[in-house]
Design brief:
homodimer; alpha/beta; D-Maltodextrin-Binding Protein, domain 2; 6-stranded mixed β-sheet
Chain lengths: ~350, ~350
């Protein structure tokens, strides 16, 4: 309906896309204003502020030639309509996470997180040097979108549990909030999963609709007050060892940008990616300290039998899903082949170092 | 001698710095050409190419208004004169590592690596969100320099050894190539250290001048062929759990830049930082595979007693060094306080996840 709205808001007038060669030279002195719709409440910690940060970088880098108006979820479009809104041109830009769009294309889920998959650094190596970004471009081009990684939450937590888990037996029939593919893997080991909005998690735990819930990590979880209704905080996120945050650009709007503004958007995305990774590392540490020291939260790890069962179940769910979808198969194969290669050095390098630090008490 | 050469090469004419307000508006249409001197051979894997990458990002982002001519070590100035050359204006920009400048200011060493210190992600959190960059600005302003992180090698290796190390006893009298602070920590446990240039490591190991040598990590070590003269490859780098690569800008040249080009340099630096981290993760993994599978290199870890002794010795060296130098004391205190805070979440998040991945055999 509003597919061509961006032509107007981009300040390009009636000439629009057809006149792109002219725009490339003339637009150096014009101001291009874009709307960015997001899946987060305005100024939501790290994610909403991450969208603001990305917009501010674009504006600074372009010397003010490009302005991005950031909209919280529900202001222009609802949280889960960002993908369609940007593809159709209702807004030129979106800020969200790709796994919300599994219903559009199964392959989307690999561009957020994969159970037992890659860490943040490994994931970025895949995106920037392992063909991951090119595959993402291909998947999203089907929907008139150009994607960018603009952040990463880092390793998330495995969720809040009202009772301790001592064995696989304790997971049977447990009512857990965990959406998507990871939820299906949990179903495979006997857990009942539900997908309810983040804003309803607190009440659902309180009233007993839920026994347990996964949200993000200490920083975002503390803001929701989940420690008040569940005391056991499980680490680490087998389901989200890292989670990419995405920006999307309407492909027509992207193609109409002059080369230097394409560079502005692309480099601002990369800087925002590192900024968010760094911010989460600090804020999660601060929030964890508050949760443990001030609120008496108990940290726990899943028993080995639960982890092993989840690994087997995850592989089955993943294999089943990609079997029937050619492009998902290619993305999954690229992802897993890259992980096998890259994680060998993580083990010898960073993992070995973290063991050393633990050993000496540093 | 050539302190003001940049005025000419910046294309700003005789007006120079004094006319900065004029430059800020007029330079939008001018081309600014800067020289970047580096401590690496031209196109040296990941480091020399990292300098090229940073220069290319600046050029793309500025729409060609800013050009950076990259010079390999020895072309304009020798590798270890980059710091002085940029401070004095012989070149506007440098690409190097801060620990080479410990002789100028002890505090410089903290902006590359600290023994038993922070991982790459933790270090970036300190730089961007923990006051680290501001402290670095302060330290370098004394030398007419503005610093930027433009890369990180990630966790390095602990070096190549001709014989296996079974205990602290085996380290006594060992002749090891390991420069700087880490070398001093090794001296503290009975090792004889020497600082010889990277290009002479191979021959020194071959002829027996050295029993062991630390260089960088698999990618750079493989290029030097060190596996041909020492078969035991020790992990992980207690001395360099991450190592920041720096860009420096002559402070007068920096102050003369218009705001949008300041943003260009600063954001390009951040994008380059993430690019180098990602590239090292992949290239080190590929090189490690080659070293182990094709060249039969044996991976080893130091015994616990060696690691514990190195930890104690490192703390002593660090405390002794900062005791007499006020600014080093402040940087060290900031660094260690931040590490204590941030590493708690690394342990609960990424470290716990890596243990999970190991446990399930992912």
């Amino acid at each position: 309906m509003q597919r061509r709205r961006f032509l107007k808001s981009a300040g390009l007038g009636a000439a629009g896309v057809a006149a792109a060669p002219f725009i490339s030279t003339a637009s150096a002195q014009q101001t291009i204003t874009w709307d960015m719709v997001t899946s987060w409440p305005k100024n939501f910690p790290a994610l909403g502020t991450g969208a603001n940060d990305f917009a501010a970088r674009i504006e600074r880098l372009s010397g003010g030639r490009m302005k991005i108006r950031v909209h919280g979820a529900g202001e222009l479009v609802p949280a889960l309509e960002v993908f369609d809104a940007v593809g159709e041109g209702t807004a030129e830009m979106g800020h969200s996470a790709s796994y919300y769009w599994r219903g559009k294309t199964l392959a989307a889920q690999f561009f957020t997180a994969v159970p037992f998959g890659m860490t943040t650094t490994e994931t970025n190596a895949w995106l920037y040097y392992g063909g991951g970004h090119e595959l993402w471009d291909e998947v999203y081009a089907q929907f008139n979108l150009k994607p960018f990684p603009v952040g990463n939450t880092g390793t998330q937590m495995a969720g809040w549990f009202k009772k301790e888990i001592h064995s696989l037996e304790d997971m049977q029939g447990l009512k857990l909030r965990l959406p998507g593919l990871a939820g299906e893997a949990m179903n495979g080991i006997g857990v009942t999963t539900m997908n309810i909005p983040g804003s309803e998690i607190f009440t659902s735990l309180q009233t007993g609709v839920l026994d347990a819930a996964d949200w993000v990590g200490p920083y975002n979880d503390l803001a929701f007050g989940l420690h008040q209704v569940a005391n056991y905080y499980y680490t680490s996120a087998w389901n989200e060892p890292s989670a990419i945050i995405e920006a999307t650009v309407n492909l027509d709007a992207w193609n109409a940008l002059p080369d230097d503004l394409k560079a502005v958007v692309s480099e601002a995305a990369m800087a925002s990616n590192l900024a968010m990774i760094s911010e989460f590392a600090l804020r999660n540490a601060e929030a964890l300290e508050t949760l443990v020291n001030e609120h008496g939260v108990e940290l726990r790890r899943f028993p080995d039998d639960v982890l092993k069962a989840l690994y087997v179940s995850s592989q089955q769910v993943l294999e089943r899903q990609v079997a029937a979808d050619e492009i998902s198969r290619r993305v999954y194969d690229s992802y897993t082949a890259f992980q096998r290669k890259v994680q060998r050095f993580t083990e010898v390098g960073e993992f070995a170092y973290l063991k050393t630090r633990e050993k000496v008490g540093a």
